[in-house]
Amino acid sequence: MNYRRSAKNLYTYFCRYYSQKLGDRPADFTYRSLCSLKFIKEHGYYPRFKKPRSFSEKIWHRMLFDRSPIWTEISDKLKARELVKEKVGENFLPAILWQGERPEEIPFAELPDRFVIKTNHGAGYNVIVTNKKNLEHSRVLRRINDWLNLNFTYATFVGMAWAYKNIYPRVYVESFLGQAEKPPLDYKFFCFSGRVEYLQISFDRFGDASERILDRNFNVLDIYNGVRLYDGPIKRPENYEEMIRVAETLSAGFDFIRVDLYNVNGKIYFGELTCYPAGGLAAFVPRKWDFIFGEKWILENKYK
């Protein structure tokens, strides 16, 4: 067991080290070969990174080869808000209560009882506060500073999430959108060439997480994608067509992008734009859906 762990740690370290040496250059043969081992472990088949067919292969194709600055812009959670404001208006943006570079300067005394602390330069870098009185300030500040000192690209996976590499880290406080102590449902729209084709709904993301994948017409699909399947009733939002309109407006101009939205008491809020869903690591069961999703994605900037 210790040997396997050591081998895994060495492999991960070398992948991240090599990725750092590549910098902003597309992946070379050596790095592609290293990454193929991770892909095989997660998906169970040998990838074709240069001539991708499946959805997962195309995510990795983008991560390994596409160095367009647009991916950095939309992965920066603060800059992405500017694009949303330009395309659909600021009414869809959750309120920012404070932003800066030093978490020690967060004005906790002036904040409401519930809020969310986030950093702009990675995935999962957030602290949900549902009762300010119970907040352990020193522990939270230490965690946020740890995040701010990390480059998400080189600190996670095998160093392939290039879009986050050049984001300047900042911290901000956003209004809490959920009810009681739970965050709202997370509606993740898979948009191909500006059209919503599929939808993933995440339930209780930070608790007993579960999800379901549906088609555009809100039909539940028999797909497992790495998170426990939600087995309760799923209510179609009354303004679902408006959610589709917002998602498709935001996705215009991209061959593929995932648009994450919230719907709180009938009001739609922007969550994020995701260019690398699940880091390309979430395997589809049954596997055929990986290729069905992949057929929808017509790559515009295919690396030769």
Question: What does this entry look like structurally?
Answer:
The structure is a single chain. By secondary structure, the chain is α+β, with helices and mostly antiparallel strands. It has two domains: 48-91 and 183-304, D-amino Acid Aminotransferase, Chain A, domain 1, CATH 3.30.470; 95-175, no CATH class. Helices cover 33% and strands 19% of the residues. The protein has nine helices and nine strands. The chain has helices at 2-22, 29-43, 55-65, 69-75, 79-87, 137-148, 152-155, 240-251, 288-296, and strands spanning 96-100, 115-119, 126-129, 171-175, 186-192, 195-203, 210-215, 256-264, 267-274. Strands 7-6-5-8-9 form a five-stranded antiparallel sheet. Strands 1-4-2-3 form a four-stranded antiparallel sheet, with helices on one face. α3 (55-65) packs across α9. The radius of gyration is 19 Å and the shape is globular. The model has no long low-confidence stretch (mean pLDDT 94).
